Amino acid sequence: PITRYYHFELKIIKLSPDGVERKVWSVNGQYPGPLIHANKGDRLVVNVTNNLGDPATIHWHGIFQRKTNWYDGVPGQTQCPIPSRVCFTYNFTLEQGGTYWYHSHFLAQYVDGLLGPLIVHDKEDPYCHSYDEEYVVTLSDWYHFPSAPLLVQRVAPHYTGFNPYPDSAIISGIGQYNCSGAPAGCYCDRNVPPATYNVKKGKKYRFRIINTSAYAAFTFSIDCHQLRVVEVDGNIVKNVSDAVVTVLPIHVAQRYSVIVTANQKVDNYYIRASIMENCLLPRTPETINYNSSINPNATGILHYHGANNEKPTSTAYPITFDPCQDLNADAIRPYKDCPPPKDVTDHFLFNTTFARNDDDVGLLGINDVSFVPIFNNPTNQRIMLKEDYRDFDKNQNIYAYDTPDGCVEIILLNGQPANHPFHLHGHAFWIMAQGPGATLDNITAYNFKNPVIRDTTMVFANSHLVIRYIADNPGVWAFHCHIEWHVEMGLVAQLIERPTEFSNQTLPDDVRALCMQFNNYKKERR
Ligand code: C2O
């Protein structure tokens, strides 16, 4: 294992990923941000210089951050935000192989482009020798307006619409927008060259696909080519017949690796990444960005070596399943049998809720509490200063459990008409049960045999989810819907894992210093 150093300069640039120019919150002037490659066991040191003019943090989605909870990048939970003009260094080891990503966790900055892929190679990956080359594909919904004004409208008093409607779909930083729908006065380029992936006939390719959207579920397919699913959110899966698909559903923040064999005629084929509009909430006239003439389809090209440069003539595979739900669980059995514990030590029952506050702002919550981060006072630091964790309470959506290596069970009942892709920090979880109905009675059977293990799963409208995981990672971990608009509306819980032990860890000086810098920054701005 080695230490890998990266330098991130966060800055706002002008870019036109889908042809329409806008301000983009970037890492090193790139969208998506630079690809981080490492090997399992490596240490990653990322020096972040924040030149955005606004505070920021970087979260490393899916990385366990064992013994480095303070580098998980969640403002108010694990660190203070990095003020503008300040540098902060993230420093952690990568104990997991697989496909991950990083993104700002400060307000909705990642919706504005502050994100990138993080790939951890593992020489023990059983599929290592099953492909010749690999590609990383990021998918995203995209908005022509910055997130800040959209967010203001989303949480405005009396607002009755749903989430801001996206304008286009992006594959690996590139989309195709019909410029006649572009906002007035905006520069728009009709001829953005499509994302192109070169293959040689007879070779095999691993595509690592990451949905970095704010809101949208995607389907991904390559005309005339099957996709063999081998990895799900960093977890290697069994080679079973159900794992071969033609169309892959991928929800917000999920990742898949698929192996594609270039076994077709030498030619060009469309790669299709499409926003599933019918998985979004209905677009009513009240909806922010109602007038969007959305292009929900981003197309890339699979180009065989030796083929001409003409447009593909290939046709799309039909979608024969419900793309709003997770990939069929039979397709994603863990590679190594890894049964969940039979007994539970800690148990939480979470209901998703929606209510209007006294100002008539519609807020989401868990058990009727809408989460509010306290930016200048991260929970993990309060615990390390030996504040009694029992003082944190469910009225703030903060839940603690203290049994070393106990088994935690979370039952999530989503009685809302909205889909919620839920993500747990610091862990991957077993999916014990998942299905229609948002009451305890709807949970009829648990899968003890070979449940899927992942870190983000889609909780469909009016449905339930039961997950289990081992409390093997002391720290403060967020559990939240990954639709960014829902995060800002409070659909977040905070889990304090093994506070007794965690409070004995030593907080690095720079993490503590960051809070002083942030508090000074706030004073100056007052
Ligand atoms: Cu992708 Cu709270 O994270």
TrEMBL record:
<keyword id="KW-0560">Oxidoreductase</keyword>
<dbReference type="Pfam" id="PF07732">
    <property type="entry name" value="Cu-oxidase_3"/>
</dbReference>
<dbReference type="Pfam" id="PF00394">
    <property type="entry name" value="Cu-oxidase"/>
</dbReference>
<feature type="domain" description="Plastocyanin-like">
    <location>
        <begin position="133"/>
        <end position="307"/>
    </location>
</feature>
<dbReference type="InterPro" id="IPR011706">
    <property type="entry name" value="Cu-oxidase_C"/>
</dbReference>
<dbReference type="InterPro" id="IPR033138">
    <property type="entry name" value="Cu_oxidase_CS"/>
</dbReference>
<keyword id="KW-0186">Copper</keyword>
<dbReference type="InterPro" id="IPR045087">
    <property type="entry name" value="Cu-oxidase_fam"/>
</dbReference>
<dbReference type="GO" id="GO:0005507">
    <property type="term" value="F:copper ion binding"/>
</dbReference>
<dbReference type="InterPro" id="IPR002355">
    <property type="entry name" value="Cu_oxidase_Cu_BS"/>
</dbReference>
<protein>
    <submittedName>
        <fullName>570_t:CDS:1</fullName>
    </submittedName>
</protein>
<keyword id="KW-0732">Signal</keyword>
<dbReference type="Pfam" id="PF07731">
    <property type="entry name" value="Cu-oxidase_2"/>
</dbReference>
<feature type="domain" description="Plastocyanin-like">
    <location>
        <begin position="14"/>
        <end position="124"/>
    </location>
</feature>
<keyword id="KW-0479">Metal-binding</keyword>
<feature type="domain" description="Plastocyanin-like">
    <location>
        <begin position="384"/>
        <end position="500"/>
    </location>
</feature>
<dbReference type="InterPro" id="IPR011707">
    <property type="entry name" value="Cu-oxidase-like_N"/>
</dbReference>
<dbReference type="InterPro" id="IPR001117">
    <property type="entry name" value="Cu-oxidase_2nd"/>
</dbReference>
<dbReference type="InterPro" id="IPR008972">
    <property type="entry name" value="Cupredoxin"/>
</dbReference>
<comment type="similarity">
    <text>Belongs to the multicopper oxidase family.</text>
</comment>
<dbReference type="GO" id="GO:0016491">
    <property type="term" value="F:oxidoreductase activity"/>
</dbReference>
